[in-house]
TrEMBL record:
Annotated YjeF N-terminal domain residues: 21-225
UniProt similarity note: Belongs to the NnrE/AIBP family.
Quaternary data: Homotetramer.
Taxonomic source organism: Fulvimarina uroteuthidis
Protein name per its UniProtKB record: Bifunctional NAD(P)H-hydrate repair enzyme
Superkingdom assignment: Bacteria
Length: 514
């Protein structure tokens, strides 16, 4: 993302649904800035990016042809402004219009009237000799799947292999959900305005956008106070102010004591991955709670991480008498069953933070209400006491109806799950969504595909646990953990396995705190 304002607070990283974007537009126009001014700025921003794609100013002047595809609404209006700007700069531009330009209305009609170049019907587009396609067919106003003529046109562009610059959204992509309605362009770059939309970050949308440029076109950020958006892209501006860090005169207990439950003797690695990450991510102390049969194998492989026996509810009750134990990870390698359910319930009843992952989640598959009732009763000052970190398969076990409801976006689905469960829900994947029961949600945008590797989810639980054990509010702790995890993967680069992630945390912190 380029040209974003300096990220300093949550509204700088807000995502606007198409309806919220229309409100931003209305509020701005009511405040005295005309729709034409906004469209003029939007179209010029598109032309600037087009020039960059053609090789910089003058790069488009050497006989290369740019095709501007214009739709029936304001997205088409932006395309006409971009076309006229490029034409004035000496670029050979042709507009291919969906409809007769006499049928355009409002600002789009104004933009078409101001264009002095040639216009051809959409059906005349072949892609021959074309160096760039500017997609101004549909943006925020897409209301139904693309018809066959437009879908065929997209295939023609794909076959011709011409680079695509999308205005606002690649046509066919839903800005609210990131879903493809029938067929959509796959753009090399997308220029959007004021703030990005959820569909730019939710898959498959993100994969259709290419490089995302966010341009400011004269909409004042203070309209966000009125609109009060509740979804954000997960960047440090969202949680930096709440992050827990060591204080100068602090001691290790100030930084919290984190606990990770180990599985049985042959399944201990996942818990150690989580424990190591929790320590490196900032917990003051970390203890592995191990069944008696796994103590030797655990003790032989840890140094700064401590090991304690925990073999049943009585042991756990005794441990919970120590109020310094703040946050617990339960699930990685733990085994599915009654023990996991009993421990989870006990921890929540004791008012401690619990990150439930993997087998911990699957243990509640047949009786999710038992977990949800406990979590709904326990939310503290900093938010819920429970964080759930499912991948799509685990999510389906706890929320089968939400997983099956095709009309819900990943953002909607995670939000509904958070409200129902009383937990902060982290629904993982390339486009991890973090949602709180109060309606706030964030879509993560960093990380690399090398994270699709065994054990990386275990490491994530440790990073979230480190923040929870230090007192960071729950939603912010989960967002920070997810971002740190993704950034660590980026810093390591190709060839990453789960064991490599925690080792990148010092470099990640150095960057974050610079
Ligand atoms: N908001 C702002 O601040 C600013 C917004 N700006 C720009 O405005 C854009 C939004 O403009 P917009 O609202 O006119 O919607 P747009 O995407 O052009 O499409 C609507 C038209 O398409 C039609 N249509 C829909 N789906 C269809 C389909 N499948 N197949 C066929 N037709 C279909 C629909 O018809 P209807 O559904 O009404 O029958 C209607 O005629 C936004 O993306 C940005 O580029 C900038 O100028 C800067 C300031
Ligand atoms: N293609 C991808 N791009 C970015 N992150 C990914 C991708 N695939 C998986 N991840 C991340 O990797 C982690 C995998 O976690 P999980 O599925 O629980 O694995 P495991 O159970 O083996 O630890 C999650 O944080 C997820 O968001
Ligand atoms: K478009």
């Amino acid at each position: 993302m380029t040209d974003a304002p300096i990220a300093s607070g949550p509204y700088d990283v807000a995502l606007l649904t198409p309806d919220e974007m229309a409100s931003a537009d209305r509020l701005t126009i009511a405040g005295g800035i005309s729709g034409r001014t906004l469209m003029g700025a939007a179209g010029r921003a598109v032309a600037e990016v087009a020039q960059a794609m053609l090789g910089g100013p003058g790069g488009g002047g050497n006989g290369v042809r740019v095709a501007c595809l214009a739709g029936p609404g304001n997205n088409g209006g932006d395309a006409f402004v971009a076309a006229e700007t490029l034409r004035c700069e000496g670029v050979d531009v042709v507009v291919f219009s969906v409809c007769d330009i006499d049928r355009l209305a409002g600002d789009a009609a104004w933009a078409a009237a101001a264009y002095r170049g040639s216009v051809e019907p959409l059906g005349a587009f072949t892609g021959d000799g074309c160096a760039l396609v500017i997609d101004g067919l549909f943006g925020a106003g897409l209301s139904r799947p693309l018809d066959a003529e437009i879908a065929n046109l997209i295939e023609t562009v794909e076959r011709a292999g011409v680079p695509v610059l999308a205005i606002d959204l690649p046509s066919g992509l839903c800005g609210r959900s990131g879903a493809v309605l029938g067929k959509a362009f796959t753009a090399d770059r997308t220029v959007t305005f004021f703030r990005p939309k959820p569909g730019h970050f939710l898959e498959p949308g993100r994969s259709h956008c290419g490089v995302l440029d966010v341009r400011q076109i004269g909409i004042a950020p203070d309209v966000l106070e009125t609109i009060a958006p509740r979804q954000f892209v997960n960047r440090p501006a969202l949680w930096r102010a709440d992050l827990s860090l060591p204080v100068d005169a602090g001691h290790k207990y100030d930084r919290g004591h984190a606990v990770v439950f180990s599985g049985s003797a042959s399944r201990t690695g996942a818990a150690r991955l989580a424990a190591g990450a929790a320590l490196r991510a900032g917990a003051g102390l970390v203890t592995l709670f191990s069944p008696a049969g796994a103590i030797l194998v655990n003790a032989a492989q840890v140094t700064a991480v401590m090991v304690e026996r925990c073999d049943g509810e009585r042991d756990l009750a005794r441990h919970l008498d120590d109020s310094r134990l703040k946050a617990f990870v339960l699930g990685p390698g733990f085994g599915v069953g009654g023990t996991a359910r009993a421990y989870a319930t006990q921890i929540l009843k004791a008012g401690r933070f619990l990150i439930l992952d993997a087998d911990g989640i699957s243990s509640f598959a047949d009786r999710p209400e038992e977990l949800f009732d406990e979590a709904l009763g326990q939310a503290g000052e900093g938010g819920p006491n429970l964080v759930l970190t499912p991948h799509a398969g685990e999510f389906k076990r706890l929320f089968p109806d939400l997983a099956a409801k095709g009309s819900l976006s990943k953002l909607d689905r995670t939000r509904e799950a958070a409200v129902r469960s009383g937990a902060v829900v982290v629904l993982k994947g390339r486009d991890t969504v973090i949602a709180a029961p109060d309606g706030r949600a964030a879509i993560n945008a960093n990380g690399t595909p090398w994270l699709a590797s065994a054990g990386t989810g275990d490491v994530l639980t440790g990073m979230i646990c480190a923040q929870l054990s230090q007192g960071t509010p729950t939603f912010e702790a989960a967002c920070a953990g997810v971002w740190m995890h993704g950034r660590s993967a980026e810093l390591f680069g190709p060839g990453l396995i789960a064991e490599d992630l925690a080792g990148q945390l010092p470099a990640m912190f150095a960057e974050l705190l610079a």
